[in-house]
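Dear colleagues,

As part of the handover before I leave the project, I'm documenting each prediction I ran so the next person doesn't have to rerun anything. This entry is a single chain, and its sequence is reproduced below.
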Amino acid sequence: MANVHKDFHGALSYAFEFLEAHYGDDGLRDFLDQLADTVYKPVVLDLKARGLPALEDHWRRIMDLESAEYALRMDGDTLVLDLHACPAVHHMRAHDYRVSDHFCEHTRIVNDAICRRAGYLATVEYDQDKGRCVQRFRKADA
């Protein structure tokens, strides 16, 4: 399995603060939306081709790589990712990185952008203070 450098999350948090301070909420949203076209393009293409199993494989790979505490399951036609302890938020706090006020919101924006491009819907309910969230994914016409 590949290595992950969790300090990346701290750098990302600072990048979010920079973008928001210099370009506003819209600039930050535009940046995150563009990730779906670049960094996450393979995920979008796989989701289009294979459906929710592609997203399930993606999340399982990422969560295992991050040694996350999570549950991933199908609930009818919806893939549910229950992240009990976000590895990014917990790592940043443990290493005294500032967690951007809207750090967890980036998950909602990126998930929405990925899913929208593939004909799916995503929702995220998060509690940044507790460092946990529940993410749901389903076909847009389901």
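The longest helix spans residues 7-37. The chain has a mean pLDDT of 93.

All the best with the project,
I.
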